[in-house]
Amino acid sequence: MKAVTAEHLMKSYGGKKAVTKALNDVSFEVEQGELYGIIGPDGAGKTSLFRILTTLLLADSGNATVDGFDVIKDFKSIRKHVGYMPGRFSLYQDLTVAENLEFFATIFETSIEENYDLIKDIYSQIEPFKDRKAGKLSGGMKQKLALSCALIHRPSVLFLDEPTTGVDAVSRKEFWDMLKGLKQQGITILVSTPYMDEASLCDKVALLQNGNILSIDTPGGIVANFGKPLLAVRSAKMFNLLNDLKAFEATEDVYAFGEYHHLVLKENTAKEIVHRFIDSKGHQDVEVLATSPTIEDCFISLMKAS
Amino acid sequence: MNTESAIITENLTKRFDSFTAVDALSFEVKKGEIFGFLGANGAGKTTAMRMLCGLSKPTSGKASVAGFDVYKQTEDIKRNIGYMSQKFSLYEDLTVKENMQFYGGIYGKSDAFIKDKTAFVLNQLHLEQEAKKLVKSLPLGWKQKLAFSVAIFHEPGIVFLDEPTGGVDPVTRREFWNLIYQAAEQGITVFVTTHYMDEAEYCNRVSIMVDGKIEALDTPSGLKKTFEAESIDEVFLKLARKAIRTAD
């Protein structure tokens, strides 16, 4: 049995006038125990998708199952079996850390003791503050409490909607380490993120843009399908270099990429030819290197093609 | 004041009771520079930015922004800076054009200035067709680019950008940075925070705040050399992991 299936999901918002298509024929499958990433910017449809799968929103059409249960017919069973951490902090701010956890355990007819081993690594980090009100916690601690509460009934599938948005690079790394630990305990995890670099930490990813799936594959598979020669180039004047390279005849696309620009070529072109072209524009300190595409390169390429 | 500097701070400090949110910041930002202001959640970035924008009084230390003192000339500062954050930017229920008229008016610009500048921005962003549409009907990426143009509509000397590209798609994120470069070329100083470490590479200089203090400040390549790191991401992790404070 698949952990999650989605078939031709459609969802639009708004009246007859201004219709926003949040999901446009979205289909995918998640295997048991998989760490599955839904990667896409704001407005891609990530939250709509998660709300449909957690039975909080009805799709206009299409089917979906979670843990073998249908999102419409069996919504009550799904609610018992999944954990959901929405993008916005949604615990009770006026309850303490311990009271929040206790509350969620009771709602799901279990106890903290029964499933303590599952949350131990995460909860033990905030346990020293267990008598503090949730509203008084720091961002990082809130996140750990929310994750503990989403896990306390030992869900079979865990839905995490943008858990790392607005979170700094250090906390993001810590969070992904926690997810790796949970995956080892056999929990299927669906996680959404606008950060392209997090895609490489998933077993499989779906790239989502404006409600459309651009690609579904392993991170390695997506990168392997890039299919065009890619160079990293730099010079002393990066902004001018970008504009100069836009006019280069072999250029398919060129865009800033950290300390280099990434130059996508129409076909294999010797580095020396590119170098000579850049030199001819009067640039200093020119560097031209072969480089491997990242998920972000692939996303850009797929976005422009669609 | 040094006319080459857009921002100067000297031991700038902000305490809330016994908690020192910003601890003796001393740095300068040159005119026309793109200055990246990095730090983990809770490092004190927002508190520092609020002081520089004239929204919060420092506990001690000195600072001037666009030549104005952060204690005594906060109204002058507000008139001479632009500000944009990911969360608040534009009035959704006003049209594209109305937003520009509104901001131009707030800053006391003449009708003729507003008219010319509106035409310029609409052309620059290719938004002529959308001029009379409500901002809420625009895709997010367009909104962010428009928000930036509105933030510098009154031609301030400095613009403060607080995580301007959060959640934005990778193509729009780059278009946004093109606008930043164009603004810098016109002499506008850009002070920007971001969680995208690749964007730190686009800055002329970058500072990294840890526990209320600036732990490092240099060009991106200088930082990588000093910390023997391959990327700014690595520099950031090396420094921010030393933080004692918990986030936020």
How many helices of chain B in DSSP terms? Answer: 9
Radius of gyration of chain A: 23 Å
What is the rounded Rg of chain B? 18 Å
Which stretches of chain B are poorly predicted, pLDDT < 50 over at least 5 residues? none
Please give the structural blueprint.
The complex is a heterodimer of chains A (306) and B (248).
Chain A: E1 4-13, E2 20-30, E3 35-39, H1 46-53, E4 61-66, E5 69-70, H2 75-81, E6 82-85, H3 97-107, H4 116-123, H5 139-151, E7 157-161, H6 169-184, E8 188-193, E9 204-209, E10 212-217, H7 219-224, E11 230-234, H8 238-246, E12 251-257, E13 260-265, H9 271-280, E14 287-290, H10 295-305
Parallel strand pairs in A: 3-8, 3-9, 6-7, 7-8
Antiparallel strand pairs in A: 1-2, 1-4, 4-5, 9-10, 11-13, 11-14, 12-13
Helix pairs in contact in A: 3-5, 4-5
Chain B: E1 5-16, E2 19-30, E3 34-39, H1 45-52, E4 60-65, E5 68-69, H2 74-80, E6 81-85, H3 96-106, H4 111-124, H5 140-151, E7 158-162, H6 170-185, E8 189-193, H7 197-200, E9 205-210, E10 213-218, H8 220-226, H9 232-240
Parallel strand pairs in B: 3-8, 3-9, 6-7, 7-8
Antiparallel strand pairs in B: 1-2, 1-4, 4-5, 9-10
What does this structure look like?
The complex is a heterodimer of chains A (306) and B (248). Chain A is an alpha/beta fold and 306 residues long. Chain A is built from ten helices and 14 strands. In chain A, strand 4 (61-66) and strand 5 form a beta hairpin. Chain B has 248 residues and is of the alpha/beta class. Chain B has helices at residues 45-52, 74-80, 96-106, 111-124, 140-151, 170-185, 197-200, 220-226, 232-240; strands at 5-16, 19-30, 34-39, 60-65, 68-69, 81-85, 158-162, 189-193, 205-210, 213-218. The radius of gyration of chain B is 18 Å and the shape is globular. The chains are: A alpha/beta (306), B alpha/beta (248). The A-B interface holds A 18, 40-44, 138-141, 165-171, 173, 194-196, 209, 238-239, 242, 255-259, 296, 299-300, 303-304 and B 39-42, 137, 139-141, 163, 166-172, 174, 177-178, 181, 185, 195-198, 201-202, 220-221, 231-233, 236-237, 240-241, 243, 246-248.
